[in-house]
Amino acid sequence: MRNDVLTESPIVRWTLLALAVGFLALFLVLPLLAVFAEALRRGPETFLKAFADPDTQAAIRLTLLVAAIAVPLNLVFGISAAWAVAKFEFPGKSLLVTLIDLPFSVSPVVSGLVYVLLFGAKGLLGPVMDDWDFKIIFAVPGIVLATIFVTFPFIARELIPLMQEQGTAEEEAALTLGASGFRTFLTVTLPNVRWALLYGVLLCNARAMGEFGAVSVVSGHIRGLTNTMPLQVEILYNEYDFVGAFAVATLLAGLALVTLGAKSLLEWRYGDGLARAHRH
Amino acid sequence: MSMRQSLLAAAAIALGLMSAIVSVRAQEVVLTNVSYDPTRELYKALNEAFAREWQAKHNQKVTVRVSHGGSGKQARSVIDGLEADVVTLALAGDIDAIAREGKRLPENWQSRLPNNASPYTSTIVFVVRKGNPKAIKDWPDLAKQGVSVVTPNPKTSGGARWNYLAAWAYELDRSKGDQAAARKFVEAIYRNVPVLDSGARGSTTTFAQRAVGDVFISWENEAFLIQQEFGADKFDIVVPPFSILAEPPVSLVDVVVDKRGTRPVAQAYLDFLYSPAAQRIIARNFYRPSKPEAADPADLARFPKLKLVTIDEVFGGWTKAQAEHFADGAVFDQIYKPAGKTATR
What we know:
The structure holds 2 protein chains of 2 kinds.
Chain A lengths: L9 H30 L3 H7 L4 H34 L5 H13 L2 H12 L6 H7 L7 H27 L2 H8 L4 H30 L2 H7 L9 H10 L3 H28 L1 H8 L2
Helix pairs in contact in A: 1-12, 3-7, 3-9, 4-7, 5-7, 5-10, 7-9, 7-10, 7-13, 8-9, 9-12, 11-12, 12-13
Chain B lengths: L1 H23 L4 E7 L4 H19 L3 E7 L2 H9 L6 E3 L3 H9 L13 H4 L2 E10 L9 H4 L6 E2 L7 H17 L4 H13 L8 H10 L5 E5 H11 L4 E4 L3 E5 L3 E3 L1 H7 L2 H11 L2 H9 L3 E2 L7 H4 L6 E3 L1 H5 L2 H9 L4 H5 L10
Parallel strand pairs in B: 1-2, 1-3, 5-6, 8-11
Antiparallel strand pairs in B: 3-9, 4-6, 4-7, 4-8, 4-10
Helix pairs in contact in B: 2-13, 3-4, 7-8
């Protein structure tokens, strides 16, 4: 549909369009194709053999485990935080909103390092953890903590604008009609935000599985034990196993594509609800 | 706070899952060897051989898990609590730091095993592009204008510290002990360094895979490995007439083995490194064995003869070298300025 308000000549418009498409092709599509091309360079058999490596399998399992813990927890945190921010007035509310955004602005390396400083052998709580013989840093709990930290804002950020826009009128009506608080949440609030919630979960999961920096700091890089998929990609690459590295990378790229596909599907199908969430 | 409780709960769930996985394998011993960057292939071979030997002798399965990275970074992780039964790092100074700062092993650790606790040694050589287009032959060629030099960051990489000290020792030897000349010489070399990776393997990738630089100052073992992995038709090894004897040492981490009850198997693992079988594997993987008589003569023939000085002779040991050259604000910090900027003094 032509927008008559635009006065730019067709040349300008087409140049801009070509620029955008060219940029996308060069910086997004081409590298993505390169990942798949490199992984399949020595044929599908070598590609599949990369997944027979027990260390790679362990890395995949660990990544799934970490996402399986981090995403549900952030789902609970995200909903609670969004609910508190959107539906209540309390002192320090803007501070809470700022804090939720903190992981976006902090470098992932720092996010990992704070846990080393806190739980490391020489850290603040290190001696206590040692007495309890409870390992956090350089073990799975530390990786989970770092992942939760970096993925914390994704769900809350999707929900807050939408919930704020919807206001409290419907909930108040439900409560007036005698519904319990929990029932109000289940039958009024949740259906109103479900698509934004799903969208947030998708983004949160993609980041949880793909996080490199923060996890790298707290992992200790013990093969078969504390390496996640992104770390395994780096290790294989540094060991000249380029096919193996790119084979694991295709899993991560595949995950990104699935996320992207699901996101587009959601936007196409339920665009209105999502658009409302993003208008702010 | 409820968030803190939830975080702890998450950690507890994860720990439960972990211990479930571990208890299934209770009859198996697991050792963790925290090593430096270029030993990946070496310890892969050594760990398999050790597992076979231990299985035959004690009818028990032993798995040696490994972690690789820049030597200084790895030492830092062990100090911060990475549970290593043994450390096999690039230089004594890093294990000293674990003893001093982490208090995880006694300070006399280096006298507990033969050869300064180094089952193998290596040295520092140059890797150049095929045909040696910049005609690199000796250390002064690295300081020339227009030569781009690849070496890792001495702050985090053990190999990089050997590189730096080898260059320093060369000029000290040539100028008959002129420290100021050595400093100027090393400064000129680092002016030619476009990028400092955190570990030796990162620099290898920078030089070999990404084709940055004219010459790569490298561990001898890593230089051979580059030729093997990328093809001898792409790179030449240039051995300078003078270099440093690099002694990468190994040690138990006493606090960890006593807590985990793995001292006997960890000790056996380190002793195994000195055994004829291991020495053969060491020479095959391009490290200079401490007992050359056990190695295959064909493997030994690959190591060129050159004049090697030790860090004790030239620098008075690692503690001194570390404090003078690599500590915060020490000589390296004073002379290194990223390429493109002029060094100020």
